[in-house]
Design a protein that fits this description.
- By secondary structure, this protein is mainly alpha-helical.
- It contains seven helices and two strands.
- A hairpin with a 5-residue loop joins strand 1 and strand 2.
């Protein structure tokens, strides 16, 4: 039920890309340094994101990557699906995988529970965009700086 490292790193890298891309295409080497991630791992991540239509590459000496869509059009769900595949808590609802993972009858009531939980998580991930996360970062930074200012004043 964990989001993979690839999914978490991909989301972090896309947030950084969206901040840096205002100046033009972003080189993966710069992202690698800023986010303390292996460049080889970032290349794997960005190949998947490119195939999913989330980023686009620009060739040349000043090339790199840009978002293929506006920040408010890219959801966390799209990113996780591109990097990890569809989110799944259990295989109960997938007939081809159920036989391998579930020994209960097809009328098992817990399947409804797991499917409902998956739907709620999917709904949440679909409702959060890169733009939303950037706003949240601004709010967090503002709250931290305000707290430091208050602590210094006391």
């Amino acid at each position: 039920m964990n989001i993979s490292t690839r999914g978490r790193y991909g989301l972090r890298a896309l947030l950084e890309l969206s901040n840096l891309a205002k100046e033009g295409p972003v080189n993966l080497r710069n992202l690698s340094v800023k986010q303390k991630m292996s460049i080889d791992y970032l290349e794997q991540i960005f190949n998947k994101l490119k195939k999913a239509g989330i980023v686009q590459s620009v060739r040349g000496a000043k090339g790199g990557y840009l978002l293929a869509l506006d920040e408010d059009k890219i959801t966390v769900r799209q990113i996780i699906n591109a990097l990890d595949g569809p989110f799944s808590i259990s295989y109960c609802d997938n007939p081809s995988l159920r036989e391998k993972s579930c020994t209960g009858p097809s009328t098992c009531i817990t399947r409804v529970l797991w499917k409902g939980l998956e739907d709620k998580i999917d709904e949440m991930l679909s409702s959060i965009t890169l733009k939303d996360l950037k706003k949240e970062k601004i709010n967090i930074n503002f709250k931290r700086s305000r707290k430091r200012w208050i602590e210094k004043s006391i």
